[in-house]
Design brief:
It is found in: Nucleus envelope. This protein is mainly α. It is built from 17 helices and no strands. The protein is elongated and about 85 Å long. The N and C termini lie far apart (78 Å). The model has no long low-confidence stretch (mean pLDDT 86).
Length: 284
């Protein structure tokens, strides 16, 4: 092997790989290149033994997609790349690249159009999650000591907390709407207890952003319209979201631990109940 490499005698190496097939010489060659840090050479088509290479790469999934692309098996390349992207937790940039490559492979594959569309939709969803992470406010990124050029992959739950945290001192209606949107990325049913509790947590944090004691009791509806709570619902309505499902149940909201003190405030309860009646009247 060393002699063939030093003399650059690829023909002799190819003969040896064919001659000593039963002795698994091809696998030895592939391992030799891998150990030497010359992974690219195992994809040299002049070596032949493509089927053997395919089997060898079953244990090296980070390289397997390159083999599939060489063999024009784009659907398999797409699946492998997407699998790698979903497993990626260390670098957001790497996940982003893997998803982009996966989408390209899906687009040029021979899969039926309905299958291809489903594959693209799944990737788009993951890319949307990346977009939400990349859009984290600068103040939050700095407060959490995050390097924006070298971010790890955050879970949806982590992003939610960042968007609604006190560190996001300039949080607006869109930050809280994004936090609510991120619930859809948790891969759990919307009525799952964890999702439901987190949903109530987001709404409670939105409520706490306003000073309800400062509102004019003589104009409760006008005052309510100034709250982040109401503005979130306005944005959702403009986006075509079904408000009956989007609006948190009033009784459950008032039981949220974060609102224990505020729930006893008569002004707050007055404004909130008036606001709910107004919203339900509009959407009924």
């Amino acid at each position: 092997m060393q002699i063939c490499e030093e003399t650059k005698d690829s023909d002799r190496l190819q003969r040896y790989m064919l001659q000593f097939t039963e002795q698994h010489f091809s696998e030895y060659v592939f391992k030799w290149y891998m150990n030497k840090g010359q992974k690219g050479k195992i994809f040299n088509k002049q070596l032949g033994q493509r089927e053997v290479l395919g089997k060898f790469l079953q244990k090296h999934e980070t390289l397997k997609w390159l083999y599939f692309i060489q063999e024009e098996k784009y659907d398999a390349a797409h699946a492998t790349l997407r699998h790698l992207a979903l497993k990626e937790t260390e670098y957001l940039s790497r996940k982003k690249t893997l998803l982009s490559l996966s989408k390209l492979c899906a687009l040029i594959s021979n899969s039926p159009q309905n299958v291809k569309s489903s594959q693209i939709d799944a990737i788009n969803l993951e890319q949307d999650l990346i977009t939400h992470q990349e859009a984290l406010p600068v103040t939050v990124v700095e407060a959490y000591g995050i390097d924006p050029k070298n971010m790890r992959v955050f879970l949806p739950e982590e992003l939610i907390e960042m968007y609604i945290s006190e560190e996001n001192s300039t949080a607006n209606v869109y930050d809280f709407k994004i936090a609510l949107d991120l619930l859809n990325f948790m891969k759990k049913a919307i009525d799952d207890p964890e999702v439901f509790n987190l949903r109530m947590h987001i709404w409670a944090k939105a409520i706490l952003r306003d000073n309800w004691d400062a509102f004019d009791c003589n104009n409760p509806l006008e005052a309510f319209k100034e709250t982040i709570f109401f503005q979130i619902i306005e944005v959702a309505f403009d986006q075509g979201i079904e408000i009956h499902d989007f609006l948190p149940p009033l009784e459950d909201l008032l039981k949220t631990p974060e609102l224990n003190d505020l729930a006893e405030n008569p002004n707050f309860k007055f404004f909130l109940q008036a606001g709910y009646e107004h919203i339900l009247k509009i959407i009924s």
